[in-house]
Specification:
Elements (H helix, E strand, L loop, with lengths): L1 E6 L11 E6 L1 E3 L8 E3 L2 H8 L6 E5 L2 H4 L11 E9 L2 E8 L1 H8 L5 E8 L6 E10 L9 E2 L7 H8 L7 H28 L8 H51 L9 H10 L1 H9 L3 E2 L5 E2 L12 H10 L3 H10 L6
Parallel strand pairs: 5-9
Antiparallel strand pairs: 1-8, 1-10, 2-7, 3-4, 5-6, 6-7, 8-9, 11-12
Helix pairs in contact: 4-5, 6-7, 6-8, 7-8
Length: about 325
């Protein structure tokens, strides 16, 4: 089996054709002498070409056959989604990519050159594999034959990575598998483009650019969300700390701790920052008992002087002992 490359596109106008002529009817040959080739059962060819609902890619200058095996890019410029048998041969309906449509509309290429599988034994057409935009058509009719070399069965085995013992059926199966893979890849790109909010058929580079820019935006959104959550957690923590500090200070005031009430807000703020130190300080303050007298903390003290706890309170509050005693006397309190 061989692969022959044929060429055709409308000769006039700059409209992008929806249907293109892929295979001429009957017996035909190229102007360079290759052939003859024969289109026998057109419906059988269509069935073999579109097996499993595959789409046939259209590239440039047979990149899939000539460049791709060398590891070079071979992007699709359109997809043949339907084949139709007509009196003058097989035609294909094309869904052009934006780049492909522009190339055709601007007449960057003169013809369309299908890659066609040909049976070596009787030179009949086996299947349409794909097509290519080209500037080298050499037939004056609708279907033009490109001056590209035929690929024999051995070359096909090598290109497809098959062993030397691979049969024609093995080659056809491998070609069909590659066609399915290309169609699957195209379908995947289409779904990705749709998910990214892009039009179907957009170039892969445009998809990558969009996703990369959107990724940066998503990172910024995530960072903003984290900062917002941290702020909320800080606010919640501060509110809880204030609630605890308020309860501790108010309970101490209710229990009669002397000198605490005027400094209530001050002690609440300090408690939020260092609760243990403030609670030790409050515990050292004298307590006003139910008879209106100050109950001294345990321990000896000189008459009219300060206990060890009161002295510590003066030091923590930053006031002199004399000032503390004067404040206590001014309040009419006495130590008993």
């Amino acid at each position: 089996m061989e692969i022959a490359l044929f060429s055709s596109l409308p000769a006039d106008g700059n409209e992008v054709p929806a249907w293109v002529h892929l295979v001429p009817s009957g017996i035909f040959r190229g102007a360079d002498g290759r052939g003859p080739y024969r289109l026998g059962d057109a419906e059988a060819v269509i069935h073999a070409s579109m097996a499993d609902g595959a789409k046939l890619p259209i590239d440039e200058n047979h990149a899939f056959d000539l460049a791709a095996p060398k590891g070079l890019p071979a992007p699709a410029r359109g997809w043949i989604v339907e084949l139709q048998s007509r009196p003058n041969g097989i035609w294909g309906r094309v869904e052009w990519t934006p780049t492909g449509a522009t190339l055709v509309a601007e007449r960057a290429y003169r013809g369309l050159s299908p890659a066609i599988a040909v049976r070596t034994a009787d030179r009949t057409i086996a299947a349409v594999l794909r097509a290519s935009l080209t500037n080298d058509p050499n037939l004056p009719l609708t279907s033009l034959h490109s001056r590209s070399p035929l690929m024999d069965l051995d070359a096909l085995r090598t290109a497809l990575g098959l062993g030397a013992d691979a049969t024609e059926a093995d080659v056809l199966a491998a070609i069909a598998a590659q066609r399915t893979a290309v169609s699957t890849h195209a379908a995947t790109l289409s779904r990705i483009a749709t998910a990214a909010g892009l039009a179907d058929g957009v170039e892969p580079d445009a998809i990558v650019t969009t996703l990369q820019s959107r990724g940066a935006s998503d990172v910024d959104k995530l960072r903003s969300t984290v900062v917002e959550l941290q702020t909320q957690l800080t606010e919640i923590g501060n509110a809880r700390a204030r609630d605890v500090a308020t309860r501790v200070v108010d309970d101490a005031i209710k229990s009669g701790r002397v000198g605490l009430h005027p400094l209530r807000d001050h002690y609440i703020t300090r408690h939020m920052a260092d609760p243990q130190a403030v609670e030790r300080e409050i515990a050292a303050m004298p307590v006003l008992n139910s008879g209106g007298r100050v109950a001294p903390p345990a321990g000896d003290q000189a008459s009219g002087g300060l206990s060890a706890e009161e002295a510590e309170t003066c030091e923590l509050m930053g006031i002199s002992r004399e000032k503390f005693i004067e404040s206590r006397k001014a309040l009419g309190l006495e130590v008993i």
